[in-house]
Structure formats: structure tokens, C-alpha cells
Design brief:
The complex is a heterodimer.
Chain A (H helix, E strand, L loop, with lengths): L20 H35 L3 H16 L2 H11 L6 H10 L2 H30 L3 H9 L4 H16 L1 H14 L11 H12 L2 H30 L11
Helix pairs in contact in A: 1-2, 1-5, 1-8, 1-9, 2-5, 3-5, 5-7, 5-8, 6-7, 8-10, 9-10
Chain B lengths: L1 H24 L2 H9 L1 E6 L2 E2 L3 E3 L6 E2 L1 H17 L5 E6 L5 H6 L5 E2 L7 H4 L3 E2 L4 E10 L14 E5 L3 H12 L5 E5 L2 H9 L5 E5 H10 L6 E4 L5 E4 L2 E2 L4 H16 L2 H10 L16 H8 L10
Parallel strand pairs in B: 1-5, 1-6, 9-10, 9-11
Antiparallel strand pairs in B: 2-3, 3-4, 7-14, 8-11, 8-12, 8-13
Helix pairs in contact in B: 3-9
Classes of the chains: A mainly alpha, B alpha/beta.
Amino acid sequence: MNYHWDWGVFFKSTGIGHEIYLDWFITGLGWTIAVALVAWVIALILGSLLGVMRTLPNKALSGFASGYVALFRNVPLLVQLFLWYFLVPDFLPESLQTWFKQDLKPSTSAYISVVVCLGLFTAARVCEQVRTGIEALPKGQSNAAYAMGFTLPQVYRHVLLPQAFRIIIPPMTSEFLNVFKNSSVASLIGLMELLAQTKQTAEFSANLFEAFTMATLIYFVLNMSLMKLMGWVENRVSVPGLIGSNGK
Amino acid sequence: MKVRTQLIGAAVIGALVAAPAMAAELTGTLKKIKESGVIVLGNRDSSIPFSYLGNDPQKPIGYSVELANKVAEAVKKELKMPNLQVRYNLVTSQTRLPLVQNGTVDLECGSTTNNLERQKQVDFSVGIFEIGTRLLTAKNSGVKDFADLKGKNVVTTAGTTSERLLKAMNVEKSMGMNIISAKDHGESFLMLESGRAVAFMMDDALLYGEMAKAKNPGNWVVTGKPQSFEIYGCMLRKGDPQFKKVVDDALKATYKSGEVDKIYAKWFESPVPPKGLNLKFPMSDVFKKLVANPTDKSAEQL
């Protein structure tokens, strides 16, 4: 294949101001992290609440939570993003609509849409992890707590959740990494995150393979570091003798 | 005996002269086509009216597709293979370069701008079209030219020359525009239609295409002084002078015979499938010049 390799492309001028292509990748990485972290906070809070709801004896609450999971897990992420970005704003009152579409900077309105979309989507997945974490605990644990006179909130607060959250750290790490990878959908609504900047570099410089190699490396290093970080967290919080504590 | 030697000598010389000539006929892409019996043309799915899928998803149509077929006819004649098979391979703006380079596609005729960056990777045929980059806006938006865009939201399609020009203009003239980069032309127009942007900057021919697709084509107008001119070309593998000559000659013949005017009128000035829309985009002076003097240079090199 007669491809013209040029690894120096990252230091070439983009033709816009004094930018070089590497600047685009750095800006892109910034947006990727900004999207993923905020979406993760939403997912973690909402997902934990829903996960707890799914295990509650109250039929209405657990029904609501499983309905939520069914809805958000079974519709493709891309479809959800288009709905949040193009359809939902049209249902807002007129003044809010103008504000969202015209007064906000386009990158801000795209950012809000993608963070909400990704946060709610990932919440459904976090919910399932939290539920399985709680259900993995022996029934005797909650029974014993009730027998000692704990109320329902106390059972969750002091007995179930502290153990469940420790068990699910490995699968939650996957979800955490998924948020970073899934944030690449933002490129489709014009948010210039890492993938969008990569595609743009590829188009402008005609050095497609170099651009995508760089993106691969950045995603890899980023996710590798997050994995290490989560491994460290897992070790830090592990309690000897508890389920899933590696016998330490 | 002497006569015989002379005869043998003549035969040897004849063979020596003829054999390399025959071998020279078959290198690169032409050799590949001859051996496989197939020429693969790259097509786009929604570059209206250049190369897109109409009513039959198996058979792309459009202005560039017709020109590519002219080339395929010429290749048939050149290789004396009347039964040469023509196959289409769908490409996107991201895949078109590597697919030409790695041999999946022999010739890509769509809406690909000939520029210096791409010339490092592939060769271009003589130009098949020339566009100017302009603005599409609502008739009542008050936008007449690029200067009116100060502080406004402007949309363009990601990865296009318009995007680069717009961003450069924003920095150089400190216009304070918010530039939205949509993923394709359809989405760019959606941004414009839904009020997220006041104007859409793109190749004029494509803007006319989007306008023709709009619910009320009469509400929109293409305006502004062209910020650049760009020549579209067909892409082929680099360093293949034989194939390039066949491609260029076929296109030049189409220009010279005036056939290109008929093809142009069919796709730009009459209703085209699938919806029977008429782009009403008369041939520009820059393109007329290109047809009169075909070149494989990019607009910036001229």
C-alpha cells in the first residue's frame, strides 16, 4: 500500500491562527475528560439510588427502577443522544428554547446534552451493578440486622451498601472506563472532543493513520491510568474478612 | 542462408520491439483490472447530486457517477474487454483515501476536493467540477455576506475546507462567531433549520442540494462572496501514469465533445431522483473555464 507516512504531522500548522495539530488533540482530550467525569458523577449518584430502589420491598419503587433500566439500556446510545440534542429542546417553553439553542454557545448546549445523555445511560448500567452487589450478599446479613432492631434505611446504610460497593468495584471500573470511551459519541453533535479532533486532523492533513494511531494511544494511556487508579482504590478500601476482599 | 539470417534478425528485432510495448500496456491499475476482469468505482451515499443512492440501493447515481462510467467505458476499450465488470464500492469521507490507496477502490469519483494534502497520498484526475464556498441562510435572516456573521452562530460540516476557512476567518478578523461543526451536510442543514445557526457555510453546489431538499425551498437563499474556489477530482492510486492517462483522456473527451453539458444539465438543472428536485444551479464561469482547459492541479496551485 503506497501510503505517505508522516509522523511530524502533529507539529504542523493547521492553518488556523498559530495552532498545530497537537493542540487539537490536547483540546479534544480536555473535552473528553470534562464530558466523562461529569457524566460519571450523574451516573454514580442516580445509578446508586436506582440500584437501591430495585432491591426495596416496595413494588412501585422497584418497578420504576426496572422500567428505567429497561428503557435506557435497550435504546442505542446514539439514538438517545439525538433525542436529547434535537428533540427534547423542542419541548421546552419558547423562552428556554431560544436560550438553549441561540444564547448558549453551541459547544455548551452540545456539552449539556451529551453529559445528560451519557449520565442517564450509564446510570442504568450502574444501577444493575449496585443491585447485583446488594443481591450477592447473604440474606442472613439483612435478616440479622432487622433482628437487632435496625430500620430499613439503617440496614442499607450500615450493613448492605458498605459491603455491596466494595464487591462491585471491578465491574464499576469497567463502567467508569466505558464512560470515557462512550463520550466519543459527542463528536456526532459537533462537540470537539478527542474523536472529533482526530477525524478533523485526518481530514485536514490527509494523514489518517497517524491521527487515529495518536487517538488510540491517548485513549489507551488514559484508560490504563484510570484502571490503575481504581485498582489502588479497591486495595485501599478493602476490609479483611469481608466478601470479595481477596482474603487480606 | 543470408536471407534466412536476415529474416530471423528481423523477427527477433520485431519481437524485442513488440514485447516491451505489450508489457508496458499492463502495469498498475490497468494490469489489476485486466487480471481480475473488474473495475471498482468508489461511490458516496448522499453527495447529492454528485454521487448518491437513489431508488436502487445497489446502483449509485449522479453527475460524478456518470463521469466515472465514461472512464469505465474507456478502460473497456483500452483493454479490449467489452465484458469488463463494473463494481461499486461505498466510501465515506473518512474511508475514501485509504480505500483507494490499499487497492479496494480503483477510482473514486464523488465530491472530493483536490488539495495539496491529499496529493501527497493519491493522484487526482483532471478536475470534474469547481465550486465556491458560500453561505446558505433564511431569506429574512438579514445575512448578506460573511461580514454580517459577527458574533453569530454559524454551522459548517466537520472536516471540510469551509470549516477551516471559517475558523481561520474567525481568528484573523476576530469576528466572535460560534462555529458549529456538524457531522454531515444533512445535520448541518438541520442545525440551520432548527435555529441553532443563522447560516451554513459550504460548497455552493451542495448548498443548492440542501436547499432543494428543504420543506420550503423558497425560504432559503445562497449568498455571500465565495471565500475560495475548489476543484473536485477523481482519486486514483499514486504513481500510475498509465491508468491516469486513460482516466484523463476519457474525461477530456467528454468535455471536448460537449457531452458534459448534457450531463451537467441532467443533474443540476432538471429534476433528479429520488424526490424529483431541481437544483437550478447553472454552470458557473469558473467551471466553464475548467472544462475549456482541463487540469489536474488543485485550485490553490492555479
